Each structure stands twice: as structure tokens, then as C-alpha cells.
Amino acid sequence: MIIARLWLGALALLAAALFSTGCTGVSAAQQRLVSRPGMIFSDAPHLSSRSTLAAQVEPGRAAGGAQAAGCTACR
Amino acid sequence: MRPVVALAMLCVVINAQSAELGRRVFGAAAVAEFGYEVLHASDIALTQAADTLRLDWGKTDAALSLGLGTLAIDYAPVSFDFLGSALGRRETAVSAQLAVRHRADPQLELRGSIGARDGFDSYRALWLDEFFRQRFEGRPGYQRAEPWGMAFSGGARWEYQPASGFAQLGYARSQDDVAPGYEIDFAGLRRGAETLVTDTVTLGFENVPTPRLRTRAEFRLSTTSGREPRYGSEISARFSVGERWIIRADAGASDERPTFRAHYGGVELEFAATESLAVFLGGQLYRDTGEVENALLFTSAAPGLRSGQAALGLRHDGERLAWRVSVGTVAGDFAATNRNTDFFQNLYRDRHWLALRAAGSWKF
């Protein structure tokens, strides 16, 4: 459990360091490279690498619902 | 009529109408999106198809999605299960969702969705349902499973720094009527929990820290009936190496007391062969500790799992048509079952999956 907490904490720290824009940010005019289709985060299926079936074979990826609950038919 | 076919026919009608209206449908810009997936192993085949019609009125857009999934299993009992027999089973699941986004002001977007599903949500639920059916069908207390679920969500996305800093907060509630488990004692047959309610809160951030880097971080808390909270986090980065090369990396973790932990991560490399065509190659690793066992004697909880994925694909980005196809493999390696879970050796056996995906969008 401690390792898991450390892992989550490390992710949070990494996120804080890498995933902030600072005080000014990057202006829209400077975003040509990060605006290409392969660079954006999107729910559109042709732009997303997320698999809807993946949670069935790797249940830890499930965001919520019965699949994330794991043993839906236990006992 | 199959919902996907119905949506396709609707798209054809709208496409004809859009030609007359100059690419406006019901006063909105319209986009049709489709996604198809196949996962195939020697004894299990899974497919999922989803078609979405997205209408954009400027400040508000709505997306109607219809889905159809199929699950086919070659159920095989273990050799010492004298009550079981091998059987092929095939089920379908249909789903629908309506999602709406509204830009309340230039920096704030409000989001909401409702959806429902009718059918099994996983091959494992189907496998376990067959296990219990062969054992207990005909006994007083046994009922044929009719799993279904519904969900709604709401949230907001705040652009706190123009075009480069976004924060997103969301809440979702889902209710799933699952295929329950059974146990039998001197009092007779008893059904397990049939309804699971899950509440999920997510907090996410998307940023552009440099002109070459886009990042996203998401933190998630889920509570499900009768279980401990599950915490999750996922970080993603997209880095443009140059004009033609992109590196995409993701990592995530889930944690649920007392013992479930999952870690995963992957890297994908993309090369732009032309202005509109890109080829990508990626791999992912996944590891979990096995699911929480809350049974004293007998449980169907999965043992620990390690798996790896690799995929190769193409993406085309045209003015009206964009698509993506990929072919890959997933290799899953389960830990050995124990005496409480030996009846499920064939469910939790190592498998090699073939993974096929195709997706696209069409602007009317």
C-alpha cells in the first residue's frame, strides 16, 4: 500500500511540475506544433488511442461502473 | 433494427439534407464519427461498434451515440467440475448516449450526458453467468440474468489560461444491474448483489507548457456499492520532436483497499509520412495485484495480471474525412489461481489477443 501511495504521490508531483503552464503560458500563435491532430487530446475515436474494450482485459484501466467494481458476479 | 444501422441511415438522410443547406444540419455544423474494435483470442471474441452524430450550433453542441457490442465465448469448465459442460455462448449489448456541451462564457464550458446500456458489459461477467447457470438453473431462487445499466454525468471545463491552460471537474453516477453470483447452503440458494451504484469524481488539467509539449493529468475517485473507494490517476504527454515526429506517453495507477493496485504506462511514436498521412507504433505495459477478495471460501475474483500490448497503425487527416486504423496484440499473463478460485482456471488463463481498431469522422 505504501508503494502505491508513493506511486500516486510521484504522479501528482510529476503532474504539478510538468503539467502547469507557468504564469504566462504559450500563446495561440506559438501553438502550431501542439495543435496538430496527433498532439491533441480528444474524445473523437480517430484521435484517441483509448480502447473501449481494454477495460475488459485490463480492469485497472476502468474509470468506473461495474467493470471498475471488478468482481461483478463474485460468489 | 440494429442501432448502428439506424444511425448510419440517419447520417445518409442528413448528408442529403446538408447538401441542400450548405453543410448545415438543423442549423448546426454536423460531424459523424464511428469507431469499431475487435479483440479476438482462441476462445473469446469481443467486438464494439459506436457511431456518433455531433451537431454544433456554436455555443452549444450535442452528440448522440449508439453502440453495439458482441461477446462470444467458448465456455469450458475445469476438468474436475463435474456439473459443468463446454458450451458456446454469444450475447449482444446495445447502448445509447446523449452528451451536451454549452459554452457559458468564453472561458467556461458546461458538460452533461445521459446514457444507458442493455446487455453484459464484459466477457468475464458472461463466463461467470454461464458457470452459475449450469450449476443452479432450475433451483428455486435462480433467475436468468438480465444485466443493464444507466449513467449520467455533469461537469465543467475552465480555460484559466487562454488556449494553454484548462481545468476540468466532473461527476458521474452509474447504476448497473449485473449478473449476480450465487451461493448455496442449507437455507437454499442465495443471490449476490444485483445492483451496483458507482459515483465518480474526476479532476483534470490540460496544459501547453512549451510550444512543443501538451500535457494532461487526471485524478479520479470512485465509490461503488459495498466496496472501498478506488483512487486513480493518469498522466499523458504529447511531445513534438520536429515537424514529422511525435512522441505520446501515458502512465496511470489505480488503488483500492485492501489489496488492489494497478499500474500501467505506454509510449507511442508517430511519423508524418505526408501532410495528411501518419504512421504510428506503440507499446503498453499493465500490471495489477488481482481483485479484492471479499469471500470466505469461494470467490471468482481475478488473480494478479501482467500484460503487454503492441500496435501499429495509420491515420489520415483530410479536410472532411479523417480516419485511423491499427492492428495490435495483447498478451495477458495471469498469476495462478488458488484453491478458492480453481474453478475459474479457464476464465483466468493466459491469452493472446488480436486487437483491431478502425475509427473515423466525416464532416458534412
For the structure shown, list the relevant keywords.
heterodimer; A: about 80 residues; mainly alpha; 3 helices; flat; B: about 375 residues; mainly beta; Porin; 16-stranded antiparallel β-barrel; two-stranded antiparallel ribbon; 2 helices; 19 strands; about 10% helix; globular
Weakly predicted, low-confidence segments of chain A: none
Q: Which class of secondary structure composition applies to the elements of chain B? A: mainly beta
CATH class of chain B: Mainly Beta
Rg from alpha-carbon coordinates of chain A: 18 Å
- For the terminal residues of chain A, how far apart are their CA atoms? 26 Å
Largest sheet of chain A: none
The residue fraction in helices of chain B comes out at under 10%
Distance between the termini of chain B: 24 Å
Greatest contact pair? A-B, 59 and 115 residues
Rounded mean pLDDT of chain B is 90
Low-confidence stretches of chain B: 16-22
> What is the N-to-C succession of helices and strands of chain B?
HEEEEEEHEEEEEEEEEEEEE
Strand content of chain A: under 5%
> What share of the residues of chain A lie within helices?
25-40%
Which band does the percent of strand residues of chain B land in? Answer: over 45%
On the 0 to 100 scale, the average pLDDT of chain A is 74
Explain this structure to me?
- The complex is a heterodimer of chains A (75) and B (364).
- The longest helix of chain A is centred in the N-terminal third of the chain and has 17 residues, at 2-18.
- Helices cover 33% and strands 0% of the residues of chain A.
- The model of chain A has no long low-confidence stretch (mean pLDDT 74).
- With 75 residues, chain A is mostly helical.
- Chain A has helices spanning 2-18, 54-57, 65-68.
- Chain B has one domain: Beta Barrel (Porin).
- Chain B is 9% helix and 62% strand.
- Chain B has helices spanning 3-21, 123-136; strands spanning 24-25, 28-40, 44-56, 60-75, 87-105, 108-118, 148-161, 165-177, 182-185, 188-191, 195-210, 213-224, 230-240, 245-256, 260-272, 277-288, 305-317, 321-334, 351-363.
- In chain B, the strands form 2 sheets. Chain B has a 16-stranded antiparallel barrel. Chain B has a two-stranded antiparallel ribbon with strand order 9-10.
- Chains A and B meet through helix 1, helix 2 and helix 3 of A and strand 2, strand 3, helix 2, strand 7 and strand 8 of B.
